[in-house]
Specification:
Layout: E1 5-10, H1 19-33, E2 39-44, E3 57-59, H2 68-83, E4 87-90, E5 103-106, H3 111-114, H4 125-137, E6 140-143, H5 146-156, E7 163-165, H6 176-181, E8 192-196, H7 205-218, E9 226-230, H8 237-246, E10 253-257, H9 261-270, E11 274-276, H10 285-292, E12 297-300, H11 305-309, E13 314-316, H12 321-333, H13 335-349, H14 354-371
Helix pairs in contact: 1-14, 7-8, 7-12, 10-13
């Protein structure tokens, strides 16, 4: 008879302000629940109305100081005891310093440590120390890419065996067939290119705007080209709008804010390309969503991005706007290139599934329990 493994999840991640963390947590939980394994999922704290897999247990938050630190350091360990879990998975950077069971923490990237000029909390030494202590104190650290694993080891001095790479997956609803049949409109005039993700400095968006402005003047087919930005503005949106306006093309930048799933799929369907010029990423979930949707991908040759995109898209110098302009013109005028990129992207995206992510994560759980600290 197999012993059932009770895995506790920090439930607050289900309503994280970071869209990527929310998706990772919910998709991983759903995929774990779908495995034919002796596994019980226990959601510790968080909003009790947040969607969760059928059959998952919920443990209400015990009394703690009404802060995130109070929850992580006091409330979460108590919830672990109440839930009688064999292991805690903290899916978003922070974990208890002391816990009654082994701890697996997911660290998606360490930009705040390796490239602090891009991190919104770069002056917050306490927060950075909290992240470091969570990783160093965990039984095992999970991360999304080999690039991030090397960055974590370098930043925190962890041995290689403590950091495990588990790539992310793409929801099956992001696929070329569904995208074609979707009736929802993106609400952005064509032609447009798409960027998905919160807007902040490391996303390198001013360079992209410059490339788009140049493409508008060089190719008649792109004279009305715009950049649709789907994501929360973290302080750079106004400067992008001003850059476009100063060039006499105020409609070249469209701030969409956070979009729902239906509109996101429509954007993937109707865009000319996903443009992803980021300077630093631990993975880049929109890359595989776009490829799975049959949307050509133009992305920077930086950080984890080549590892994720592989041969499924065009990789460009993140600092050469002229390269991006040329790629946009080629994509708009060369049907063979566009078709080839779609085919290559679909093939590449098929290698990323949440089931695979769940299976690899479960192996991490078993190893952490065996190694229990």
């Amino acid at each position: 008879m197999r012993t059932r493994l009770r895995v506790g999840f920090d439930g607050r991640a289900l309503t994280s302000p970071a869209a990527g963390v929310r998706r990772y947590t919910s998709e991983l939980l759903g995929a774990l629940a779908g495995l034919d394994e002796a596994l019980d999922l226990v959601i510790l704290g968080g909003d009790p109305s947040a969607p969760a897999p059928e059959g998952a247990e919920r443990i209400a938050e015990p009394f703690h100081l009404p802060t995130n630190a109070g929850w992580t350091l006091v409330g979460l360990p108590q919830a672990m005891r109440h839930g009688r879990v064999d292991l805690l998975h903290a899916p978003s950077y922070t974990a208890p310093y002391w816990a009654p069971a082994p701890v697996v923490v997911t660290v998606h990237d360490v930009s705040y440590a390796r490239r602090p000029e891009f991190f919104p909390y770069r002056r917050d030494a306490v927060r950075r120390a909290f992240y470091r202590r969570s990783a160093v104190g965990a039984t095992l650290v999970v991360t999304d890419s080999s690039f991030s694993a090397s960055e974590i080891r370098e930043a925190y001095g962890l041995p290689a065996e403590r950091v495990v790479v588990v790539p992310l997956g793409v929801d099956a609803s992001f696929n070329a067939e569904t995208s074609v049949s979707t009736h929802a409109a993106a609400g952005v005039p064509s032609p447009f290119v798409l960027h998905v993700g919160d807007l902040h400095e490391r996303r390198n968006l001013p360079m992209l705007v410059e490339a788009i402005l140049a493409a508008r003047t060089r190719a008649a087919a792109l004279s009305g080209l715009s950049l649709a930005l789907a994501g929360v503005d973290r302080g750079v949106g106004q400067s992008l709008m001003e850059l476009a306006a100063r060039s006499g093309a105020p409609n070249a930048v469209r701030l969409l804010g956070s979009v729902d799933e239906t509109r996101l799929r429509a954007l993937y369907r109707e865009a000319l390309a996903l443009t992803y010029p980021s300077l630093y990423e631990g993975f880049g979930l929109p890359l595989i969503e776009a490829m799975a949707s049959g949307l050509p991908v133009l992305a920077s040759r930086a950080a984890s991005i080549p590892e994720v995109v592989g041969s499924g898209g065009l990789l460009l110098d993140s600092h050469r706007a002229s390269d991006w302009t040329e790629a946009l013109i080629r994509l708009a005028t060369d049907a063979t290139l566009a078709s080839d990129l779609r085919a290559r992207g679909l093939e590449r995206a098929a290698t990323f599934t949440w089931t695979r992510t769940a299976e690899m994560t479960l192996e991490v759980y078993r190893r952490a329990v065996r190694n229990g600290r």
